[in-house]
Specification:
This protein is an alpha/beta fold and 167 residues long. It has 7 helices and 5 strands, in the order βαβααβαβααβα. Helix content is 57%, strand content 13%. The protein binds shikimate-3-phosphate.
């Protein structure tokens, strides 16, 4: 069994669900945003501010390549991971990708007013809709399994676990 890579929009619950699924499966948990922050010794917002999105994506790609070589676990990715075909190839060759699918309205409510998402600084709701539409095809074509992540955390964790066991 390789990694389980959780993909999906900001606010879809990748980190919360990933941690719980890893616990249930008795496997390590990794979070790509955390790896980027640790390696950069700066927050995601600071990295965006200093290096722009291009610099952040480069760091993100290196973090994916790094985590891919670690012992098999559950990985929460950043929402933009699927923008780079290299990331998708790395994820799929080192395990399985599971998409957490959630409507933009729900995402917007979940994200609330948190200020740590640089892509949502102006007009959160509208930006979320636009980004979700722009990425929809990429998420779907990058996913080995799709889990509806609108319901309770418990139900989502159970569905993701089932998708993992099927692999
Ligand atoms: C991003 C999602 C964020 C983070 C960065 C960019 C995106 O991660 O990687 O702000 O492009 O969707 P989360 O999906 O964990 O919020």
């Amino acid at each position: 069994m390789g990694h389980v890579w959780l993909i999906g929009m900001m606010g879809s619950g990748k980190s919360t669900v990933g941690r719980l699924v890893a616990d249930r499966l008795g496997r390590p948990f990794y979070d790509i945003d955390d790896v980027v922050e640790q390696n950069g010794r700066a927050s995601i917002a600071e990295i965006f501010g200093l290096e722009g999105e291009i610099g952040f994506r480069e760091r993100e790609r290196r973090a994916v390549a790094d985590v891919a070589t670690r012992p098999a676990g559950v990985v929460a990715t950043g929402g933009g991971i699927v923008l780079d075909p290299d990331n998708v190839a790395t994820m799929r060759s080192s395990g399985k990708t599971v998409l957490l699918a959630v409507d933009p309205e729900v995402l917007s409510r979940r994200i609330g007013d948190s200020e740590d998402r640089p892509l949502l600084t102006d007009g959160k709701e509208e930006r979320l809709h636009t980004i979700a539409m722009e990425r929809d095809e990429r998420y779907r074509s990058s996913a080995d399994a799709v889990v509806d992540a609108t319901g309770s955390i418990d139900a989502v964790v159970t569905d993701v676990e089932a998708a993992c066991r099927e692999s």
